[in-house]
Amino acid sequence: MSEDRVHVLLHASELLTGEGVRRKDGRRPEEADLGRIEDGAMAYSVKTVPYEDFTTGKKGMKVVADKVLWTGKSDALPSEYANSPIFDLDGKNAVVPGLVDCHNHLVFAGDRAGEFAARCGGATYAEIAAAGGGIQTTVRATREASDEELFKLGRARLEEAHRFGIRTIEAKSGYGLNEKTELKLLRVVKRLQEATPEMTIVPTFLGAHDFPKEISREAYLAEVIEKQLPAVAKEKLAEACDVFIDEGFYTLAEGRKILEAAKALGLRTKVHADELANTESAALAAELGALSADHLLKISDAGIRALAASETTAVLLPGTAFYLKAPHAPARKLLDAGARVAISTDFNPGTSTTLNLPAVLTIAALYLGLSRAEIFASATYNAARALGLHDRKGSLEVGKDADFFVAPFRKFEELYYRFAW
What residues pair up with 241 in beta bridges, in sequence order? Predict the structure, then answer.
């Protein structure tokens, strides 16, 4: 490989590879698992890829990081990389695996600031939804928005997420609730990936986010299974299918039917589980081999045991509990049982309006009681596991993607110690 196709980061205050977290498959992470290298260095390959300029709409080429070639102490840099372009951090910045936001409703139009004010005045989320607000407010705005409007909104959000160290991000549909708009959202996500090669965007189909008001529950369930899912699979618009199984939304039986249909079409599965009430949907996720069960505010002890014994990652969203003033998920019970736990933003217009994953990690540290090692694992390897990308993402090891974040601080923990930086 020619020297100009290799770049080097030198003199990081600390470089955390996360190798030990990966070896333990993200369970019960400890400080020794972080792979901490003082005065760390990394050599990585780069590649030239096509992209679409956000401001001008013109298409061009961009050089982006490709694969990790070597990590170690700065004074041990192999001679073969000595003449490559070097970025000397002068001991001022930590380098960590790029953060992974594994539960994100990236593309939608409109806002629900008025509803937030109403909730602050005493109205509940359920009351707002019953009055035609909540998800339905966003559905109306999203249906009316053009592809270009949605693209511009998504692209601006990706730039913001990138500033907070996020290098891999999920993008759910779910604010269309009809075939036309659900497919529109996922096509916008596909275009966003082409325009943002410095990030990995993982599309998830969430047509079963709620029920539309214009047709019956039974008719929409049939539409999701018989029309939307086959169309998504045919165009290869999503990696996984998610379902909101909860009180007032999809029943356990309905969720099972949708998820089994998705699996039959070759899609992976995820579940919005046990958030508003315990429905044992976390246990269903584990039974079906889902990538993740997310929220889990009301998970039962049986659900905890099911996740701990499975390959399904428990994705906790403390920003949502904070925003709703709800009791947090039982993180310590999940961790101590041996479950693999990830933390994500749940960025959405109604219950968690932040793309600042480090700020959400602050909430996790304070209110979920996670250690530094557990925080690190939750936003790197474990979050990658929740997207099925752990073979490429979540740790800085030779052969894996060179997704890294040069933090504006000397220590990893400053990312969440410095609240909302």
Answer: 205, 269
Instruction: Give the CATH number of domain 3-97+408-417.
Output: 2.30.40
Of 408, 418, 411, 379, nearest to 99 by C-alpha is 379
Identify the burial level of 417 via C-beta atoms within 10 angstroms of its C-beta, where 0-12 means exposed, 13-18 middle and 19 or more buried.
Answer: middle
Delimit the CATH 3.20.20.140 region(s) of the chain.
Answer: 99-395
Residues in the chain: 421
Q: How far is CA 264 from CA 113, 250, 267, in A?
A: 40, 20, 7
| CATH number, span 99-395 | 3.20.20.140
Q: Identify the helix (H) or strand (E) that includes residue 288.
A: helix 281-288
Q: Nearest-CA neighbor of 27 among 289, 385, 412?
A: 385
Do strands 36-52 and 59-73 pair parallel, antiparallel, or not at all (unpaired)?
A: antiparallel
**Residue 339 bridge partners (DSSP):** none
**411-421 pLDDT per residue, tens:** 999 999 999 99
pLDDT in tens, 226-245: 999 999 999 999 999 999 99
* Separation of alpha carbons 138 and 309, rounded Å: 37
What's the rounded Cα separation, in Å, for the pair 322 and 23? 32
Q: For residue 287, which of 306, 269, 308 has the smallest C-alpha distance? A: 306
Contacts of 153 (CB under 8 A, 6+ apart): 107, 108, 109, 145
Delimit the CATH 2.30.40 region(s) of the chain: 3-97+408-417
